[in-house]
Structures are given as C-alpha cells and as structure tokens.
Amino acid sequence: MGLFDKLFGKKQQQESLDQGLQKTREGFFGKIAKAIAGKSTVDEEVLDEVEQALVSADVGVETTVKIITKLEARVARDKYLNTAELNNLLKQEIQSIMVPAPNDSTYINYELPTGHRPHVILVVGVNGVGKTTTIGKLAHNFSLAGKSVLLGAADTFRAAAVDQLTIWSERTNVPIVKKEMGSDPASVAYDTVISGVARKSDVILIDTAGRLHNKAHLMDELTKIKRVIQKVIPDAPHEVLLVLDGSTGQNALEQARHFTAATEVTALAITKLDGTAKGGVVIAIADQFKIPVKFIGVGEKATDLLVFDKQQFVEGLFQL
Asked: What is the pLDDT of residues 20-65, one digit of tens each?
C-alpha cells in the first residue's frame, strides 16, 4: 500500500477513474460496438473501425498504427479471431506500449524516496492546464498522509498564479514562500529551498511560469531555477513534473514536445480527463515520450488526483 493509498483505497480510486473516463469510454466503445455488430470474426473492416475509434479518442496516428499493426499480426497468425477476444487483445496491446515508471511498483504505490529530504518537485506546464491546482492537490494529499509540505510561488509573472497558490496554501494549511509580482522566479525558488531545509520539510513543491511562446527563454529560466536550487541541495530538483491538459488532445502532445525539448522532464501529470472524450491521449503521450505518467486528474476533488496505474487505467477505459 502506497502513501496516497492510505488516504483512499484502491476501490475508491478505481471508481473515481471509471467515472473520470466515462466520456472517453462511451465514445470509444460506441465505435467498437458498431465495428463488431453482426460480426463473428475480426476482419479488415473491423480493424479499420477500431483504428478510427482509437484515433477519435486521441490515441494519435503514430500510436494507433502500432496497436493496429500488432492486432493485424495476431489475426494473420491465428487465422481466426472472434470479436469476443478483441477487447482483451486491445487491453494487452495498449498496456504493452505504455512505458512503465523506472520502478513500476513505486509509482503505483507512491512513496517518497528515503535517500534525501526534502524531496524537491519542480512543476512546469503552460497556463490553464491545471498546474497550480495540481500542486494544491498534491500538497493536500501529502499533508493528509502526514508529510510536511512547503509551497514555492515562482510563477511571478501572473498575479493570479500566486493568488491561486496562496488560496491552496490557506485551504491545506501548508506554508508558502512568495514575493511580489515580477520578482525573479529563481530567487523565489532559492528562498523556498532555503526555507524548506530550515523547516525540515518532507516535500517542496515549486510552481513555475507557464509560458511557452519563447522556448529559449523558458529553457534559460528553468536552467537558472535549477542552478540556484542546487546551490542549496546539489541533487535537486528530484523531480520535474510536467502538467498537461488531457482535454486538449493532440495539443497536449505538442506542449510535451516543447517542454521536453526545453528541460529534462522526469514525470507527467495529465489533468481534466473527466471532461473529455479524448482520454486516449494518455496512451499517446506515454508511448511517444517514454516518460512515465505519474498522476492523472479525473475530477475537482483533491482525491481525484490519482497515482497513475497503467493496468488500472486500461481497465477503467474498458469497463463496461
């Protein structure tokens, strides 16, 4: 049992996931049901319909082709494949292409590493993806799990970002380090880490500016933040968490390309999956970037930020 599982069990997480994936599941399975209606075997027509269903769920062309190619090979090998087997095969193929975390069980049963303290998480992502809300939810869940948390409001270019993080600080009773709007983000990050060490915090969550119009400037800013943090903790940040809005579908893939080019992203959080039929983008992102998805957002409640389990996710996608 992991750190967050102590707060809400696997059954509750599966229920939240099933509800969050409802729109994607209904759209996807509506097309699959149409594809196999009246069919006794999986033929070329069925595979074409499955391909369209995957693309419409924003699994993406590149990842869809991988899945369909494997299904075609299975059909060719077995000669006869009935439609009742199709869902199981799809589940197997989708799971197989989703990159595992460096230590799969550690990510599924989330625990903080024991080799250092505090654990510094630098959170990146464009404005509007739910980045600050994700930080607030993480702070809430870490706190409930008995961990001391410190927030750093280094998105100093938007007053709303600092205000929003301050609200989460007050709501979760978690301290925050902030400065006036327009301050150097790196100086906020530095002061946050200094304060976190002095407080003996377990976790430090640092928000960063959500700008993507100038990739070179973004890279320079993030590099500077890392450099000043490492003056205090040489191996920090221990995680660079990229937050993506799952409801934007293929646009989330484009954001991932920009951020992975600009900085060393180590994990992903994909939000707003409950409001979209494009939940398949999680599969595309995991496949194309080979970066583990660590958290997914499937609702408004703090407990709707789930530790990502690819098997649980695929089961939720196929839950009838």
From this structure: 888 888 877 667 777 777 777 788 888 888 898 888 888 889 999 9
- Calculate ∠ Cα 163-122-237, nearest 5°: 145
- Number of other residues whose CB lies within 10 A of the CB of residue 160: 11
pLDDT in tens, 179-206: 988 899 999 999 999 999 999 999 999 9
Closest by CA to 305, choosing from 173, 145, 197, is 145
Angle between helices 250-262 and 281-289 (to 10 degrees): 30
> How far does Cα 144 stand from its chain's mean position?
21
Rounded Cα distance between 152 and 147, Å, is 16
Q: Give the mean model confidence (pLDDT) for residues 60-78.
A: 88
Share of the chain above pLDDT 90, in %: 36
Mean pLDDT within 268-287 = 86
Asked whether residue 6 carries a pLDDT value surpassing 70, the answer given is no
